[in-house]
Amino acid sequence: MTESNSPTPTKNHFGLPPSLDHHSVQITNIRLNRDNFLCWSLAMRMYIYGRGKIGYLTGDKTEPEKTIAQHATWDAKNSMVMAWLVNFMEKDISANYIGYSTANDMWDNLSQIYSGLGNQTQIYEL
Length: 126
Description:
- This protein has helices at residues 18-21, 37-50, 54-58, 71-87, 91-94, 103-114, 119-125.
- It is mainly α and 126 residues long.
- The longest helix has 17 residues, at 71-87.
- This is Retrotransposon Copia-like N-terminal domain-containing protein.
- It holds the Pfam family Retrotran_gag_2.
């Protein structure tokens, strides 16, 4: 076999391959409003799960102590998930979530507030 001269992907300073650190596809065409939480949440969960970050939503990936070296990596990944969520909300909703410190807290609050609004219609449509 001959050696390939194609470069192998390197990892960034957070240990992520470049393809997982940035995305070039739109997550969803759905922006969270007061009537579409079910569809929006399913699309977001699918995307976040596919990116290997579902633990940040569920709370399974807990924040390490700030003195531990892994904290910077956790913080970067948690922030990335929060940015994905906020960027696919209507502006009047996203303004209420900018100050959250974890994706899990944000997700739990969104679920509590929006899961009952308008979802009966969405379930019927599905």
